[in-house]
Predict the structure.
Amino acid sequence: MPITVNLDDIRDAAAIIAGSVVRTPTVYSPSLSKLFGCELSLKLETQQHTSSFKERGALTKLTGLSADERRRGIIAMSAGNHAQGVAYHAARLGIPATIVMPETTPFSKIERTRSHGARVVLSGRTLADCRAETERLIAENGLVLVHPYDDPDIIRGQGTVGLEIIEDAPDIDTLVVPIGGGGLISGIAIAARALKPGIRVIGVQVDSFPSMYQAIHGLPATSGGSTLAEGIAVKYPGQLTQPVVSELVEDIVLVPERAIERAVQILIEEQRLVAEGAGAAGIAALIHAPERFAGHRVATVICGGNIDSRILASVMMRGLVRDGRLVRLRIEISDEPGVLATVASVIGETGGNIVEVYHQRLFQDVPVKLAELDTVVETRNAEHVREIVSRFAALGLNARLLGTSAIDGEVI
């Protein structure tokens, strides 16, 4: 199948969306550049009205509808960013919008979509389950489908990201772009390779959803499971996007779930930037395969910032545990006055901060005159934890670590 979008199409899309979609900045990150050993810039699509690049393609598509199509209304099938981008710009243009979402969609995403004036229909447990309901509504009401990625207008709208990156950071030699259905990377690759033929375009997928990688390599489809990067958790890539990726994208890096989680954490701690799992996928590629990018001038798209607050809090706390900055110590003590104060003094004198304490007398397999004290302690790093444990040992108290930590690279 030939590539159906060219640089002029993308430039036309840029003119269409100008003034209605945020022209987001491409910013250089000194701290992340030092961390990964490359010159790294970030394209901040999190600054869009709905915190995602999806607005670009949605507005390009909606602007091209005929008067009759606008009157009939549009429909989209999405669990998140595409839904909000379509709903937001449909409301601006006075176009009735119906969004079909899985019944398992978080309440916050449903309400944000409704807040833009869209009619939300909940159907099935997964996005794939929504297809039958979407097709039924199209047949019954004559609605116009706004596909999330397999549409030339969507591809050329997303390609405006590439135009802006090359304009703002003309010296880059490598682009790292998350892949779901392939609309974003297709548009960016078409624009970037037309403007800089020698530029490398590298895709990123989470390894539990390697749908595009498998499609272009002729491998059996295996996508499925739970992932923090739900925005790129697409089981079947686009038919229009596959040939673009095959021709213009140098490679696709498959990253593990832990790299996605770590990327979200690093963006907050090093860049003070909130990104969802899919939005941080480019950073996950740098974490997982830093040798691929060392010494290069790299730009990656932080393509979305719609992460659930509860999930974000969990990611940050898990990161502290992984780095040895939040640990759980189990200390065997004699059940007598003053010992608890000694434990608190040791932790305080070594600079630790006690977050929680669990004093176990009844339900542990220990002698009746002993007890086990579980303490959650905030520390500076893994070396600090070892210092605290050593201090307890010097006092004749047995302290051991529970759970998973980065200390000595082992599970403890």
Residues 408-412 have pLDDT under 50 and may be disordered.
